[in-house]
Every structure is written in C-alpha cells, then in structure tokens.
C-alpha cells in the first residue's frame, strides 16, 4: 500500500506566496513541496524507525521534476508504508517467540486474503485483509501464557504494539483465524481434544474449524 501526501495550491497561504510569472511560481511551489516532503519523511521516520521509499507524481506524471509543476497543479508523494508494517510485525514476532527447538519461531505465516505470501515476496496491494498466524498446534497454549519465555503471550502483545506504532497506516488487531493445513491441520485430524461447547465435539466442519483456529494478527487498511 502506498500512502499519499498531496501538495497543491488550495491552501490560501500558499497561493499568496506564489508570486511572479509562471516559472517563478512553479519554482516556489516546488520549494514548498520539498519542505513538505522533508516534514513527511521525518514523521514517517519517527513512526516506523526509518524513512520509507516514495514515488513522486507531478501533475500526474511519475518521476517528473518538481519544478515542472504548473502554478495551479499538484504534487503527490506516495510512501510505501505497508511493507514496513509487515516487516516490523514479522521481525517482532520472531523476537518475542519462545525458543526451544525453534519450530514455533520458524512457523509464523503471512497471508493476504487467504493466500500465503512467502518470505521475501512483496505483499500484494489492495487485499482486504492481511493475517499473520502460527502453524504449530501449541500456539494457543503459548498465547495463554503457558510458556515461561512468553508469560504474556506473543500475538496479542505484538498486535497491540503494532497498532500503536502504525495506527496512521492500518488497523492492527488480535484475533483468531482457521488454518486447516500444515501441522495444525494434521493435528486436528487426529486429536481427541474436547470443547466445552458440545456442538464443537461433533465430527464435521464446525469441529475442524474450531480445532484449527490459531491466534492471529489481522491487518486492515485505513
């Protein structure tokens, strides 16, 4: 996802400062836009810990020189913030993971609208929902604080931190999502674990969905 910072001449103070012929006014507009870009970069640096890449559109032209803007035109800076969010969540999940054999730490998965995004692949833009979850059957036990290495759990804690840090980019929340494949799927097919709700103990899709529900971090765009 790219977040846009649009600079135009709607602001009356900006209009009043643009004086001279068209070339002079375009240069003044470009100088103002550069100042606004620096301010936006600093805000992003404080929010994400780094300055994200951006693209520039001048009167709709990608990569055009700022000075070529029309006196009554627009300059748009688009920042790639969403991948910074995903990278931060993935790294923080690793850092907060309890480690014995390392299976839990290596089993964090990432999905965009239900399709897995492999490590190193860019996340597709425009998905309605992005989800991190863990494929190990004991992820729910860890989330309940049963690991001495993570007494406060992992996914809910990281979701809270991410939402505070990136609330201007997306909504990040803790939830549960079903993962019917991998280790959790194999376990769900053989376990005799019973639920308090009797309907979940009857063979069928409802029981399988309950058994494969994993702690998840769910991201939706603002």
Automatic annotation (TrEMBL):
It comes from the Bacteria. This is Uncharacterized protein. It comes from Ancylobacter polymorphus.
């Amino acid at each position: 996802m790219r977040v846009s910072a649009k600079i135009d001449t709607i602001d009356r103070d900006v209009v009043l400062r643009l004086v001279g012929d068209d070339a002079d006014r375009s240069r003044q507009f470009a100088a103002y836009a550069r100042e606004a870009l620096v301010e936006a970069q600093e805000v992003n640096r404080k929010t994400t810990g780094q300055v994200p890449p951006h693209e520039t559109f001048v009167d709709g032209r990608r990569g055009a020189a700022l000075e070529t803007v029309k006196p009554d035109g627009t300059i748009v800076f688009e920042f790639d913030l969403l991948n910074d969010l995903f990278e931060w969540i993935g790294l923080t999940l690793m850092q907060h993971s309890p480690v014995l054999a390392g299976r839990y730490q290596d089993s964090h998965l990432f999905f965009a609208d239900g399709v897995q995004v492999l490590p190193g692949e860019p996340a597709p833009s425009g998905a309605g929902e992005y989800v991190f979850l863990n494929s190990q059957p004991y992820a729910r036990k860890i989330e309940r604080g049963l690991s001495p290495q993570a007494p406060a759990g992992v996914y809910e804690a990281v979701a809270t931190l991410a939402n505070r840090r990136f609330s201007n980019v997306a909504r990040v929340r803790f939830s549960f999502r079903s993962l019917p494949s991998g280790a959790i799927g194999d376990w769900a097919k053989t376990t005799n674990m019973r639920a308090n709700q009797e309907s979940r103990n009857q063979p069928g899709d409802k029981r399988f969905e309950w058994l494969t529900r994993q702690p998840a971090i769910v991201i939706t765009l603002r």
